Amino acid sequence: MRFSGLRVLKEGLTGNKGWSPHWRDPAPKAEYDIVIIGGGGHGLATAFYLAKEHGLTNVAVLEKGYLGGGNVGRNTTIVRANYGLPGNSEFYSHSLKLWEGMEDELNYNVMHSQRGIINLFHSDGARDAAARRGNAMVNQGDDAILLDRDGVRKLLPYLDHDNIRFPIYGGLYHPRGGTARHDAVAWGYARGADQRGVDLIQNCEVTGIDIEGGRVTGVQTSRGAIRAKKVGIVVAGRSGLVAGMAGMRLPIESHVLQAFVTEGLKPVIDHVVTFGMGHFYISQSDKGGLVFGGDLDFYASYAARGNLPMQEHVMEAAMTLMPIIGKARLLRSWGGIMDMSPDGSPIIDKTGIEGLYLNCGWCYGGFKAVPGSGFSFAHLIAQDRHHAPAARFRLDRFETGRGLMDEEGTGAQHNLH
Ligand SMILES: Cc1cc2nc3c(=O)[nH]c(=O)nc-3n(C[C@H](O)[C@H](O)[C@H](O)COP(=O)(O)OP(=O)(O)OC[C@H]3O[C@@H](n4cnc5c(N)ncnc54)[C@H](O)[C@@H]3O)c2cc1C
């Protein structure tokens, strides 16, 4: 089934009776060439690119819940390529290019909207840091514009520009950044993988990883044992638990991150705006809700819900930056479990176990990484060598100390990145 404007029109006029399910619901086979653990954005994109780029279709994605029920459907949908450090810079640049072709590639409307991102700064020192980051982005071939006070005032007139404590000095503008409809990204990759023959198996929790003579041979699941020549772990906030099934102890802590949405309002915010001093960011969804968030809850947890102190903290930051938000009514809040690495950068690598591969450590920035991560992880699994843009995401950097990518410069503390 292909989507097109004509098809939508025809179905709309004939009672929407001609649509078929987006993917099959197969029973797990006894054996696959490749098993991907985790049906989030990264797992589904990996399966899609294994099939599309490498012709590998004897593949299963095993998901303990339903597709898109994890962080891929819980994030605040920001997509950007505004990293400054080598390693991250080329990876996110590649990922953004994949975003720009995603809707054609998947024949799926993921509502990718390049509305631009503005990172505000509030001191001379922060302006220097923004200029340095902007130069790194331009060197990488991406777009960055340093805005002065008037430039920000013109684009974002609704902010409190002269706040006594945090006056706005300017902003780093990334016009190709923006947002996308998060769960549509999961559905689009799922549909694309399924169409190429990948089995997407929901309600199938991996409970054990089988290893013989230092080589992976399959997995144990809530729906029985499945043999596999290669296994990829892509389970975001559960990375430590699943890697533990293979006897590995990862340098990952799982922390809660919350987000919030207001009732639907008329268009007021055209961009994505981040408030560095208060750790607050905001955009407006196509339905009109103001979507915003702040920092981690700071304690390690596997509970996908937050707490009131952080809610209060985020609301305070919101009111500091844009007092007009006080008139909006909050509709709901939710939380997700973040796989925080010690340097705030991800891991895409082989493990010490032959045939077992690892993809994790996306912290709270993994949504924008979905296409790039899937592409690079598929490359690694299929060819047993790193894909160039993700070549620095090595696991052993936490053992040797070489190649750390501490983008925030906050040191080796997981919850500060
Ligand atoms: C509130 C919030 C806001 C965010 N905002 C942004 C943002 O604006 N921009 C951005 O780039 N990123 C953002 N993120 C981060 C981003 O959502 C994540 O980094 C990314 O989604 C993680 O990768 P994933 O999609 O594969 O994870 P998930 O969707 O969580 O996928 C992992 C899957 O593995 C499954 N699983 C776990 N254990 C097992 C098992 N034993 N067996 C089988 N399956 C298993 C889970 O059920 C889950 O479906 C945000 C996250 C949150 C929570």
UniProtKB/TrEMBL annotation:
Q: Where is the Rhodanese domain?
A: 34-78
Report the EC code(s) recorded for this entry: 1.5.3.24
Pfam families in the record, alphabetically? DAO
Q: List where in the cell it is found.
A: Cytoplasm
What main location does UniProt list?
Answer: cytoplasm
Reaction it catalyzes = sarcosine + (6S)-5,6,7,8-tetrahydrofolate + O2 = (6R)-5,10-methylene-5,6,7,8-tetrahydrofolate + glycine + H2O2; sarcosine + O2 + H2O = formaldehyde + glycine + H2O2
Q: Which domain of life is it from?
A: Bacteria
Gene3D superfamilies for this protein: D-Amino Acid Oxidase, subunit A, domain 2, FAD/NAD(P)-binding domain
Instruction: Provide the protein name.
Output: Sarcosine oxidase subunit beta
Q: Cofactor(s) for this protein?
A: FAD; FMN
Q: What is this enzyme's class at the first EC digit?
A: oxidoreductase
What organism does the record attribute this protein to? Tropicibacter oceani
Q: Please provide the record's keywords in A-Z order.
A: Cytoplasm, FAD, Flavoprotein, FMN, Nucleotide-binding, Oxidoreductase
Provide the family line: Belongs to the SoxB family.
Transmembrane portions of the chain = none
- Give the SUPFAM superfamilies listed for this entry: FAD-linked reductases, C-terminal domain, FAD/NAD(P)-binding domain
The UniProt entry, under InterPro entries, shows: FAD-dep_OxRdtase, FAD/NAD-bd_sf, Rhodanese-like_dom, SoxB
Is Nucleotide-binding one of the keywords UniProt gives this record? yes
